[in-house]
Amino acid sequence: MACSCSGGCASSRAGSAEGNSPRWRRALWIALVVNAGMFLAEIGAGLAAGSSSLQADALDFLGDAINYGVALGVAGLGLAWRARAALAKGAGLLLLGFWVIGSTAWYAMHGTLPKAEVMGIVGFAALLANAGVAAMLYRFREGDANMRSVWICSRNDAIGNAAVLAAAAGVFGSGSGWPDFVVAGIMAGLSIHGGAQIVRAALGELAEVRAETAAHAAE
Prior knowledge:
Elements: H1 15-18, H2 22-49, H3 52-74, H4 79-109, H5 116-137, H6 145-174, H7 178-218
Helix pairs in contact: 2-3, 2-5, 3-4, 3-6, 3-7, 4-7, 5-6, 6-7
């Protein structure tokens, strides 16, 4: 989970042309379909297995599918629109993070024991899906906040999937649900942190647009 902007999410006007390229749009469509499909598979498995980390990961797939759809909608538009899209993504990550924290607390209070085998199988499939999407989007990692956030989300999702596999091993070895709860909590925290970083980057780009508009108006 989590789309943190390690190294900063600097604005890049050079990304506008690339953001409207057929390759960028094709990559987004593929990523959207993969993430939507994995959401359906993982949310069902997470509910059946009683795993909060799988459900957290499923919600992340849903959030990413929505984000890819938004990115497709603003591809080729001006920096202001792309920054607004990134702002919406960041806000969505914050909401998802807080929802996962509440869900994990509920499972912990009720002492739910997740099914480690289901967690492992589904978590591995999710890892393969996210690693493939991240590799496909790698070439777009240096674009504006909108493009950069898309790649960072996919990259960090693969890291989150590895954490789910670690949680499955912990549940299997300990016979306790706490490894699952801990991993879900970490994923939620990373989502909140990443969402805050994307929001800050997008607000910076919007401030840049406003400053340039004011400068042109004063000329």
